[in-house]
């Protein structure tokens, strides 16, 4: 998850976290306010840039020319450089939505782990597309007597032609212990 | 290009060839932070990671899933991938590699379900998941 500056906001959030735990709300049900279930971020509009896709290819060691070269992509039948399968998750992060949903929930970035991720595909995403995406908190639950909490977040990525491209579902694990 | 014949012919239970991705160096983590938009300092700043109670930085889960996406594309084009889900079952430390593997979990006339796994060279499983891959020509998909 992407804070704008993890070092800057974490002390305040961590203090809030400790206050929550000292009140004893950390036992059993966990710390996160369940009234955030159903919260939805304002939709963000993200330009899918070829340069960002090339950087993603470099970072992931991708060798296929369709992910870096528009001519190779078109020769393979694509209308532009396609976004690789997991890039829709990054589109949501690159939106740099402020506040992030973790900030809304008051969860320090230092305490989260990615637990699960799923993708369901409907239409491809290409360089040059403008993707509209928002985040909805669909569930929050605790395990291990509140030592671990789980945030389930869902996103839908829709392109500039109002075509649904990808549905995403994330489970984020929060370490309260 | 994907070797589609493997998926078309492999019976249920068959293991597909493994592939190794990485090494996941600190440079890779820095590049992936910028490329993916996940700027969580726990993956790139050892001072922050230690304050958070970790021994060192560790890899983004989505880096492993991106490697798994590359792996699946050995057997099918990305346009054939209908849906998939992974569980991040253990942290992937810095300076390791990931060995990706798959078995055919089930199949019908139109699609194959793969059970996917990733593990470190010392045998720690880090990801487990399933992918539904279409064997039919997707509408509007590249030839």
Describe the structure.
The complex is a heterodimer of chains A (177) and B (143). Chain A is of the alpha+beta class and 177 residues long. Chain A has helices at 6-22, 50-59, 70-75, 87-94, 101-105, and strands at 44-47, 112-121, 130-143, 148-158, 164-175. In chain A, strands 1-3-4-5-2 form a five-stranded antiparallel sheet, with helices on one face. In chain A, β3 (130-143) and β4 (148-158) form a beta hairpin. The radius of gyration of chain A is 18 Å and the shape is elongated. Mean pLDDT of chain A is 88; it is low at 1-10. Chain B is an alpha+beta fold and 143 residues long. Chain B has one domain: Thiol Ester Dehydrase, Chain A (Roll), CATH 3.10.129. Helix content of chain B is 24%, strand content 31%. Chain B is built from four helices and five strands, in the order αβαααββββ. A five-stranded antiparallel sheet of chain B has the order 1-3-4-5-2. In chain B, a hairpin with a 3-residue loop joins β3 (98-107) and β4 (111-119). The termini of chain B are close together.
